[in-house]
Amino acid sequence: MTDATYTPLPAWPRAYPPSGASALLKALNEDFVVTELPLQPPAGEGEHLWVDVEKNGANTAYVAQQLAEAAGLQEWDVGYAGLKDRYAVTRQWFSLYLPKGETPDLTRLQHPEFKVLGQGRHVKKLRRGDLLGNHFRIVLREVAGDRGAIEANLQAVASQGVPNYFGAQRFGFDGGNVEQGRLMLAREIRVRNPKKKGLYLSAVRSFVFNEVLALRIQQGLWGRTLPGDVMDEAGRPTGPLWGRGRVSTTDQAQALENGVAERHAVLCDGMEHAGLDQERRALVARPADMAWRWLQADQLQLSFSLPAGQYATSVLNEILQTTEPERHTEEEPAPVE
Q1: Which of 142, 152, 252, 279 meets the CB 3.0–4.6 Å disulfide criterion with 241?
Q2: What's the whole-model pTM score?
């Protein structure tokens, strides 16, 4: 691929042999249950009111708006650690800046798409990325294919992990956010909206990371340490989140990453000039406490936990091919890194 166009997205390779199986994902909201794993519980005192919310069929930003209205606040006074899926049942914390006056009892708030399960005071506002990770419980319906092949991939994923790709939702419909990012960085279009600019930069940065990871998979290197790799705190090799500064890898790892950067020079040069700094991200995602069971002959339930910024779809894609019911909705922001 060259810098000419980025739609549609490439079919990035998988780590394990395809099972040939398929399933329906999110037939019901209750089939995709996500529970946020917070860094800490509320301390019991402070200027911020933390509320524990379970939502069903609503996106995170909408719930934040509703909480702000109920508490008489501006939307920017409400914080949260990450965006959660709309077509799911999800549980997460929000913070509301309420330094003065009486504390409202938001557990009494009535809304058809969410409920407040509990609340408590804390000294800090919740900000993006302030979470350990997420726990998933997923039911796949209409499973069709060789159960033995599915089980083999389940065992491989549980023991070896999966490539830590950014999920498709990161890139917009058919990769449109990447292409808009290319046009923006090439100065073929001007993007004045800071939110859209951030969305496009995030998509471009994620795309380049996925391209590096895809090349390592093609070369049989995704789960191996190369000479010159930069390791994370858990001892896993990392890939680039492109930006300013010297590439921190050396030797074979640096040559591989520089080769990808040369193929996507408009994107990488543009990210450097946009002021992004070099960061790193683990190439391997290892789901914790992974378990599964067959509910019926064509229904499979999975459960596992992932650190913040890792995608459940990366796990599912290595097991079988999933499709979702067709829904016509406006574009929603991509999950936070």
Answers
A1: 279
A2: 0.91
